[in-house]
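Async update (no meeting this week)

Hi team, since we skipped the sync, here's where things stand on the single-chain job. The sequence we agreed to prioritize is pasted below, unchanged from the tracker. I ran it this morning and attached the output directly underneath so nobody has to dig for it. Comments welcome in thread, and please keep replies under the output.
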Amino acid sequence: MRATLLLTATIEIVGVNPYVLVSAAQVAVLRPEWRRPMPVLVKVNGAPTAPWRTSMMPNGRGDFLLYLHGKMRDVSSTKVGDVVTIDLAFDETYRNGPQHPVPELLQAALDRDETIAHNWARLTPSRQKEILRYFAALKTQEANVRNVERMARILGGEAGRFMGRDWRDGE
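Output:
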């Protein structure tokens, strides 16, 4: 039987990121001794019907931060400062690694340029996953081409800004 946790907490914010603090004792109900990001199924104030899949992030003191993105707060009609009921369960079905395919244009760049391929391989799996998720969300072919070309230039060693980060020497 899957362990679940029902807790009441206040939505707080750090920087621009709304979150709920989940204590070490509460996390231990789901998975004792867990120290890395924890995949969970989440409902906020009973919404949505099918729970969100996300990961709680350890804060280094034994507690975890459950970040609540905009859609989660919209569906549950909540905002920063609200006291909410959180229903959590460990996500047994979570599988790590990229969930989206490498776009054909990026794969072509990886195949033709050794530097681009080397720098792509040096990126952490979570960074690769983030980039592939970004590409999968692009709506037009023009945006895809433009962004893959920028990513290829950056992986090729050109300094620049991409996805809200400064890049230098392909990282």
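Quick observations from my side:
The chain has a mean pLDDT of 91.
The two ends are 43 Å apart (CA to CA).
Reply here if anything looks off.
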